[in-house]
Automatic annotation (TrEMBL):
A Pfam family recorded for this sequence: Carb_anhydrase
CDD domains the record matches: alpha_CA_prokaryotic_like (cd03124)
Protein name: carbonic anhydrase
Stretch forming the signal peptide: 1-19
Domain of life: Eukaryota
Family to which the UniProt record says this protein belongs: Belongs to the alpha-carbonic anhydrase family.
Catalytic reaction list: hydrogencarbonate + H(+) = CO2 + H2O
Organism: Gracilariopsis chorda
Every Alpha-carbonic anhydrase domain range: 39-285
Amino acid sequence: MKSLYTVTLFSFILHSAIADELVVIQVDTKGCPVKSFPGEYSYDRRLQDNPSNWGDLKEEFAMCKHGVRQSPIDFHQNVKYERRSEGPQPNIKEANMTMGSGPFNWALSCSDDSGSCGTTTFGGKTFQLINIHFHSPSEHTLLGKAYPVECHLVHASEDGDLLVLGSMFEYADDKTYSGKVYQPMKDEYGDNDFITSIMNGVKDDWGEWRIDMRDLINHNKGYCSYIGSLTTPPCTEDVTWFMSMKVNSVSRRQVHEYARSCGTSIEGNHRPLQPINGRDLTCYVM
């Protein structure tokens, strides 16, 4: 299995939204990846390197403590509305992805840098999709509601700007949603095919395989946006976030298998909510 580069969704050098360094993973006989990464930080609130202390662990992590535009946040109701045509224009494709692992997570990175995995255009600039990863439970919340899984599609522009498309997953048997703006596209029951295709590759240690991401984001549902940061160290700021207003479905079994696959602590692998500090939220849904 190939290692992931130094990475992510918004990465210039490519700093991963899940880790500062990604490495090769192996899978044991139970289908759980065996981690071989340096323990630079954790999500376990019982340990000294928990999210509250990330900014004190290393000098390069200082932004996690001192930054004023950090992620994740709660998407509240006090938003400005704009036309969808003014928002992001994703062109996500079916493409080959390569797997690698970081602290308490794994990620799928585009197997080349030619834009073959797709792009998103916003503000006259094109961002290439470079990384996909998940968090459970969700890092962001919608009107105060946390979701079982949140997916991040990390993009980077040629000049190093970062953009992330986020997408929430709700249990297929849970019909309680948070509000009119944040609604599922439709009720679906059973396993999510997108998650299944990924978890099969993780379990069977495929290393590189083809993934169809086209149904993950539905442009007609719109997006809500703000300026934030990476949600893992070094917590780099000035990341443009777009949360898809399509809430996907996922089975409880799939969420359990994801948690097993990345060896998360009992709290999961999500960073706690950060102060909004007066930032504007814009929803491109009109």
